[in-house]
């Protein structure tokens, strides 16, 4: 296990380094010049050159890249071209919105989808099993912004129970308001996420229900519940966990639509603004942090799978036991 | 000129270019009538789509920084009122020399910056220099480059010498923030003299202003103002509907207005806008070098129908670059009015009886794509084939504005008094008429507003007749507010939003 962990960590660091190179290069291949955003309309070539010099975009790319890596190594995400604010502290304040939003939505989605998916599989021949299955199918097709608008119309505009959007300016120092403003966005993401999760849980459960080992366990005298608990869930959870990992990772950045509908100052909207302004330090900072997040989630999902499924321990580490 | 008022992102490359001239246009008064008692310690929440990029208006802060800080946190020697008048603010008095080249300003006494420092002539000199500095991105930079010398004979007196006469000098000064010359980090902090001081700016979310106890003038009529920023117009309207904000500075679509119009808790105010939607031809590229072709295109498009489809019953038709609030306004909607038969005849006279084809560079945000599709269908009826090329604001800036590499384009021009751009043959649309250039120059050097107005009227008439561009319509300026509020600005001139007179009932 220790060897596996080490290998997995090396893999993580290499992935992160590769991601840095790709994102740095791709960013500079985009059309447009950040200096345009920093000079007045009608600026002279000298003024534009001065702006390029001021932000260092006139230096050779390898030099810019090593400069960035050096900053990263010292824990500095740089300074925004446009606002002159440090990127790190802004990312941190945005994470205060995005992380609770993503995690809460994720937990809620799992709490809904796991039992619902199980019921949809186990009771697939009953009317409610079929209904669950149909509803989740429909749920996958629902666009997030539409669901958000409906929830706002019902719970904020008509009922007036919750705010229609925004986040308290003082953030979590007003915990009540902060939580209230996250309820609808969390529900929105969770509903959409659980729709697809239900499908995965259902199909994983179906595989298990048809499996030989479950039948054998029953034949040996286990009750259905006990056989499911000891053998079924464990087997079903392995594919589900990798899906969960992917869902969680994509929500981290995919929250941009929800952030826009609910006017939340999250990481996604910071990225969108940064891209529009060619604000390289902002784009790089956000993408670096979220790439790191995604890789860590993948790491955790892999680890969890190995703990649950002993068969993987041999396979993934590639070595003899 | 500015690329866009409604842009969610991407306005950074836009900025505002303005050439302007003094004198005042009368228009609506500020806010709905104040009546009854109001809460002197109220918090006013203002909803806006325009978050500042940073807090420095000479460093690309964008339209958001003008909206939030102009007149509220920073003040100029003069101020532009909501109805377009220029009034003295930090200048107590001023004198102009006989040759019109030397302006002597006396500063108001007892003015303190938020830091506690007293205002002196040094600060004024510093602030003026900041606007015309090499790295300045101020929209007024080119207008103020007539400044030759700034002298400060004593702490209360500033003497500015110009290289040539400039009748709009005082007007342009209303855009120059007077900043503490010792202040640092102006992109993220402030040190102005206004009725509010910056409380806290949370990027991506809100910017708070607190009433400044040491203000030299009348104290603000509310204790605190918070600008809440939204990226999505629907989210902004929802905020107003749920009382999360008290007022929306500028509605950008008529769709949402019905829910406020038929509700006594809200007031929908139809103010005067200066934003014009233009179909700008490249007057230096064939076939638009031909006046008849430009006139034909203008006559082939039914502006009224377009305005109706984009804005419902709001907005106005204009026949030239001049909105009714500019002093040199004349109703020229009859010039090159909608007349498809005349359009066909003009095309035949120009040698395009069978029509022609051109590409229309269309910014990718509303209302440009809608307008482009409409124009395409209208021009098809007179035999002109339009290819719509959708581009981002950044591409527009490089391709159209800088490189003049286009046939025709759509663009919003937001500022007042921007007719004078037709006097600049190097401007992106390439209108080059020696007489017009001369009139514009003479107007700027005019000795009085009557002379200036008369000259610019000629410019207005000539450019309209020449169909220098096709001015499709004038946007409405719609402020929607809670009925508890009064005293807010209605016209949002050049994106300003003075908050200090806003009264909120408890």
Automatic annotation (TrEMBL), chain B:
<feature type="domain" description="Solute-binding protein family 5">
    <location>
        <begin position="85"/>
        <end position="416"/>
    </location>
</feature>
<dbReference type="InterPro" id="IPR000914">
    <property type="entry name" value="SBP_5_dom"/>
</dbReference>
<dbReference type="Pfam" id="PF00496">
    <property type="entry name" value="SBP_bac_5"/>
</dbReference>
<dbReference type="InterPro" id="IPR030678">
    <property type="entry name" value="Peptide/Ni-bd"/>
</dbReference>
<feature type="signal peptide">
    <location>
        <begin position="1"/>
        <end position="23"/>
    </location>
</feature>
<comment type="similarity">
    <text>Belongs to the bacterial solute-binding protein 5 family.</text>
</comment>
<keyword id="KW-0732">Signal</keyword>
<dbReference type="InterPro" id="IPR023765">
    <property type="entry name" value="SBP_5_CS"/>
</dbReference>
<protein>
    <submittedName>
        <fullName>ABC transporter substrate-binding protein</fullName>
    </submittedName>
</protein>
<dbReference type="InterPro" id="IPR039424">
    <property type="entry name" value="SBP_5"/>
</dbReference>
